[in-house]
């Protein structure tokens, strides 16, 4: 008789799951029996490749993986997804909402070329994409009665909140907002059985990192600074996302969890 996997019958909704931390989470959770709705925004060629990956993972792990190539920041798209996803067999089954959206403006605060400057509109867009959109998604999934009675909400932040990275101001502002939002969500959504936490990953060589000016220098520093003598990998973060979804993690709420091998200590 085969042993039941820990997350069999449950669902995750992953916002931004076509690469990096989101994709690693899809792989880890699917391997442990969780069904997944993965939402992302990619051009057709990349979307086709992502769908092939998800199909393969679903077959390999005997789970359902529903892929949606849509704008997760658009109210109408969010409403359309929830209407389609909201079926009787999914009621009360969403164990995890993972916010892994990497969309923001990478511009300096001051430069000779005014066209290259970060604007308040850039900051507002980035803040909604990488922070405040989590609140809208949480509220709508909760209103649809889709969350599990012991659900998890997880966001992602970075060390760039507290240290200067070139052209990272808009994202840093968004991530700082996300940290405060996590605190308030942890308190105000707790009566609904939801635990809200934030993961601060070490510097990880993802596609999102490579878009940051000077990212090669960040990679070089991380490789020498980390006490464990290697960079953080997406799988390291996915492992902790998995841990936070277990029953044993039910008392972790409102926490900022460093997943970096001790990199933040130096």
Task: Describe the structure in your own words.
With 266 residues, this protein is an alpha/beta fold. It has a single domain, classed as NAD(P)-binding Rossmann-like Domain (Rossmann fold), CATH 3.40.50.720. The protein is 42% helix and 17% strand. The chain has eight helices and seven strands. Helix 1 runs parallel beside helix 2, helix 1 packs across helix 8 and helix 4 packs parallel to helix 5. It starts with 10 loop residues before the first strand and ends in a 7-residue tail after the last strand. The mean pLDDT is 93.
Tag the structure with descriptive keywords.
266 residues, alpha/beta, Rossmann fold, seven-stranded parallel β-sheet, 7 strands, 17% strand
Write the layout of secondary structure elements.
Elements lengths: L10 E5 L4 H12 L3 E6 L3 H18 L3 E5 L5 H11 L8 E6 L20 H24 L3 E11 L11 H20 L5 E8 L5 H4 L4 H11 L8 H12 L10 E4 L7
Parallel strand pairs: 1-2, 1-4, 2-3, 4-5, 5-6, 6-7
């Amino acid at each position: 008789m085969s042993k039941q996997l820990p997350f069999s019958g449950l669902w995750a909704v992953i916002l931004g799951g076509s690469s990096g931390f989101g994709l690693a989470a899809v792989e880890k959770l699917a391997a442990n029996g969780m069904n997944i709705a993965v939402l992302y925004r990619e051009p057709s060629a990349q979307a086709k490749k992502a769908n092939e990956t998800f199909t393969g993972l679903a077959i390999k792990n005997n789970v359902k993986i529903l892929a949606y190539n849509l704008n997760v920041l658009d109210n109408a798209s969010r409403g359309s997804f929830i209407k389609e996803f909201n079926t009787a067999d999914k009621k009360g089954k969403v164990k995890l909402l993972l916010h892994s959206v990497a969309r923001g403006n990478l511009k300096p605060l001051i430069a000779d070329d005014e066209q290259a400057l970060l604007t308040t509109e850039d900051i507002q867009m980035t803040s909604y994409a990488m922070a405040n959109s989590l609140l809208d998604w949480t509220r709508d999934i909760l209103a649809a009665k889709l969350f599990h009675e012991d659900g998890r909400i997880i966001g992602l932040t970075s060390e760039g909140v507290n240290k200067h990275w070139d052209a990272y101001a808009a994202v840093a502002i968004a991530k700082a907002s996300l940290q405060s939002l996590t605190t308030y969500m942890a308190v105000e959504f707790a009566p609904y059985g939801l635990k809200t936490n934030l993961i601060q990953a070490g510097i990880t060589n993802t596609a999102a990192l490579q878009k940051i000016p000077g990212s090669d220098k960040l990679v070089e520093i991380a490789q020498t600074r980390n006490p464990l003598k290697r960079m953080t990998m997406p799988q390291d973060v996915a492992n902790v996302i998995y841990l936070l979804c277990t029953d044993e993690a039910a008392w972790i709420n409102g926490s900022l969890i460093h997943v970096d091998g001790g990199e933040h200590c130096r």
